[in-house]
Request: fold
Amino acid sequence: MNIRVGFGYDVHTFALGRELWLGGIKIEHSLGLLGHSDADVLIHALCDALLGAANLRDIGFHFPDTSNEYKNIDSKILLFETMKLLRQKGYEFGNADCTVCAEEPKLNPHIPAMQKCLSEVMGVDSDAISIKATTSEKMGFVGRKEGIAVYATVLISKI
Ligand code: MG
Reply:
């Protein structure tokens, strides 16, 4: 069978004085996420799922957070480069299903814009990108509003 699945997970902590970038778009909020890049935790989880599906290691292997080249980088560039790696290895994207775990802000109004943005960066149909939002029912680090966690699953196939 020429289809493969991949799974990705990432987490970033909230910080004052940072912009909140999620799913490739900027969301107005009192806090942003801390990170070496723009800290787009959704894109990072998605990249790790894509790389995992193609057995291409992980996002830190390709884009090290010790490198100045990636300081404050727009994570959409990392996603674009990840799709290039995938296609170079002879794979095409099938679909993705992502779950964003955040107590705040409310993400549902932003999901269509995230789907549109990610699908344009990846060069795929926006219907192939599912993004779901949930809270953690006030439990754990997400529940205490310390940060955002994202889980992503993808399917790819060999061309
Ligand atoms: Mg990350």
